[in-house]
Amino acid sequence: MFIFWHRIFKSAWQSFRRNGWLSLVAVFIMAQALLIVSILASLNVVVGSTIKSINERIDVAVFFKETAPEADILLLKQAAEGWPDVREVTYVSSQEALNKFLEENRNRDIIRSIIPEQENFLPASLEIKVTDPYKIESVVGQMRNGQYSKLISETSLEDNQKIIEKLRNVSGFIQRSSLILAVVLVGIALMIIFNTIRITIFTRRQEIEIMKLVGATDWYIRWPFIIEGMMYGVIATLFTTVLLALGYAVIVRPMMTSYLISASGNPVFSVSFLIFLVGLQLAVGLVVGGMSSYWATRKHLSI
Amino acid sequence: MIEFDKITKHYGAHKVLDSVSFTIRPQEFVTLVGPSGAGKSTLIKLLLCEEKPTFGRITIDGKDIHLLKEKYIPYYRRQIGVVFQDFKLLPNKTVAENIAFALEVSGLPDDEIDQEVAKILELVGLKGRGDSFPKELSGGEAQRVAIARALVFKPKFLIADEPTGNLDPKNAGEIAKLLLKINSMGTTVLLATHNRDIVDMINRRVISLDDGKVMRDKRRGKYDTNYNYQ
Predict the structure, then answer these.
(1) What distance in Å separates the CA atoms of residue A284 and residue B38, rounded to the nearest whole number?
(2) Three-state DSSP class for B189?
(3) A215 contacts in B (CB within 8 Å)?
(4) Domain A59-159, CATH 3.20.20.140 — does that match?
(5) Residues in a beta bridge with A263
(6) Contact between chains at A211 and B48 (C-beta distance less than 8 A)
(7) Which of B125, B136, B204, B139 is nearest to B169 (CA)?
(8) pLDDT, tens digit, 9 for 90 and up, residues B132-183
(9) Into how many domains does chain B fold?
(10) How far apart are CA B86 and CA A122, in angstroms?
(11) Is B194 inside a domain boundary?
(12) B89 inside 8 A of chain A by CB
């Protein structure tokens, strides 16, 4: 068994080396396909974080009547935090709302001059963030129909309905189009790899015929081709990793420092993501390289 | 003993072989002659299990080779040496590696392979050319490598399909001599050719094929000038 695998690997490496240009072209094309896959994965992360940040901005405020006791509002907050669709509930007391308002308008003297100094005219509220922007209506409905419904004066949902609708549409559109783009481009990348390997094996179909006539079994012929296909994948991955590292240093990092791509201050491209990217390419290269060789040799082995 | 028993082969409506029957005895040298399209190459393809006959059977020592399961065909082919007109050498392997490949597939250890390859290279007169690649060889040399590869298994039976077709007369003559030498060492040889000089030089049993039928079978024959074999 050892001698079998030793010969298979030796033969694969020998043919990779001696087919020089053919191997180089195959590696180069495969690297381009893997680059498409990596760029797509990176784009997916950017899209994901963009959608996340859009969704984070979609929230609803529930305002309470002046008479509503704080203890009851806090009980409602506690209850709402237990609802499955609710991500976060923040209590903003009447005083906090006023402080915030004054802070936000500290340079607007006209506004400051018309509001009463002592009397607080702002209601207490609960600011609710949901897990899924489409759940906002049901969460608000749940509050309005619950035991504390009498305490509620109004919600921001009525005013913000159109903006929420728009944000939801944008995020849905980005999600759908990035998925379609991903499917199409990954499909193209896989086809490129498969066809490249098919062509390299097609140019060597006579070798397969000779090996068969000399009495080699199908697997003895096929394995070196499969391993060669996988070698294209490994070398192409090394190549694209260098390119990606360069791209990261030259393009992504400056964009990140200028907050062009980032979600709530967290870096989008972490080291673990880059390791994932290399792993992804390696997996695609090995699996697709090997499988393509398997399929491509099948046709020529039937003599 | 190889027996061709009423071998018929159709490709669609076209009949390439029509009830061909003859027997090759052990250690015999048989020359198969006939014009292009006579069915020589088809007969050899059938013998190598590349194709199956439409009717009839080919038996070796009583066993029908076309009843072999597909997975046993590689092992069957290792018992037969084959030489082709276009040499069929692996272009990215050296002379020694081409010959060694035939032994590697059977799982022989490296040291034994090296010994066998050295011996066979000497037999075909290519000692010292082991590290050359096929593209660096002349036609005659390439055909010697092909013969060496066919012989390295020590097969009982060697098939040569137009082995001199791509060679000049001098090299063709030398290949014929080499085949005779191999036959004298105990290997049965089936040579398909339409080279008149070679047939006359070998002067052994000649089977003439034309239009898919056996026209003549002479125990010790010369080229039949009644046919235009070109």
Answers:
(1) 51
(2) strand
(3) 74-78, 102, 105-106, 153
(4) no
(5) A266
(6) no
(7) B139
(8) 999 999 988 998 999 899 888 888 899 999 888 888 888 888 889 889 988 9
(9) 1
(10) 96
(11) yes
(12) yes
